[in-house]
Amino acid sequence: MSTTNASTGHSPFHLHIGRAPRLLPPLTQEAIQSTQDSFPHDVANAVEAIISLKIDIADAHDALLASKIAQAHTANAHRANEPTFTVRDSVYLSTAHRCREYLTSDKKRVVK
């Protein structure tokens, strides 16, 4: 629940709620009072918390996009060049799954 994601840099709980989860509930009266005092009581603090949450989510989106681009770059580095075809080249056309595609395209078709 509080494990930081390597791609986003935030925990899922933090992105959803806007703060880190508490591991243990407060057990003493002083801890309960300090917890109640730490919650935002006015609109300015609530707006600040919402803006902070939006910034964290935007950072996570940016990190995921950067991770996706890095993964695509790494995957493309290991790919071979695409073959080039010219007119009158002999090519192999695989029709292994053509019968199944023909049957699933419409209910009124029969294959012999």
Question: What would you say this structure looks like, in words?
Answer:
The protein has helices at 12-17, 29-38, 43-77, 98-105. The protein is mostly helical and 112 residues long. The model has no long low-confidence stretch (mean pLDDT 77).
Keywords:
112 residues; mainly alpha; 4 helices; 0% strand
Task: Summarize the model shown.
It contains 4 helices and no strands. The protein has helices spanning 12-17, 29-38, 43-77, 98-105.
Indicate the topology.
Elements: H1 12-17, H2 29-38, H3 43-77, H4 98-105
Number of strands: 0
- Poorly predicted regions: none
How would you sum up the major sheet? none
- Net shape: elongated
Strand content: under 5%
C-alpha Rg (nearest Å): 28 Å
Terminal CA distance reads 56 Å
Number of contiguous helices: 4
Mean pLDDT comes to 77
Oligomer: single chain
Structural class designation: mainly alpha
The H/E string reads HHHH
Helix content class: 40-55%
